[in-house]
Amino acid sequence: MSERAIIPNSIAGSFARKLLSAIRRGSPRLFCCQGSRTRNPSRWAGFTLIELMIVITIILTLLSIAAPMYRTSIVRSKEAVLRDDLFTLRSLIDQYTLDKQEAPQSLEDLVTYGYLREMPVDPFTASNQTWVAVYEDAMLMIPGQTMSGIVDVHSGSNLTSLSGEPYSSW
Length: 170
Hints:
The structure is a single chain. The protein folds into two domains: 3-47, no CATH class; 81-169, no CATH class. The protein is 45% helix and 9% strand. It is built from four helices and four strands; from the N terminus they run ααββααββ. It has helices spanning 3-6, 11-25, 49-100, 108-112; strands at 30-31, 46-47, 132-136, 149-154. The strands form two sheets. It has a two-stranded antiparallel ribbon. Strands 3-4 form a two-stranded antiparallel sheet.
C-alpha cells in the first residue's frame, strides 16, 4: 500500500507527505510552518537546533532566577501560618485559664473543652503532635487560680527562620 492510499489527499495529507519526504532527505531544519517560497520553494522554514538551544537556555536562566524566589515565598507563607497558629494557641491558653481558674494541663484540654475543634498542624513539622508546651509551676495568672499548667507553646521544629532564629523560640 502506498503513502497516498493511507494519507488522504487534503491539506493535512499534503503537509504530512512533504514532512515525510523532508525527513527522508535528512533536512537540517525542524518544521513548524510553511515559510516563504521565494528563494527555494522546496525548503520549509523552521527552527534550527541552535535556535532551539538558545531559547531553552533563556528559559532555564529565567527559571534559575524564579525558583529561589518561589521557595522563599513558600517559607514566608509557612512562617505566617506558624505565627498565626501560635497567637491563636496562646490566646486560647489565656482564655482557658481565665474561664476555668486553672491553666490547661495539656494542649488536648483546649480541644476537649471546645476551645479548638482540633489542634492546628505545625506547618514545618506537618504534624499536630509536635507542639512543645511550656509548663510553669510558679506563675499564676489570676488571684483565684487553683492550679498551674501550660503557659506558653512553641513549634516543635528544629529549623531556623529566614531571619535566623529557630522556630522553636517563637
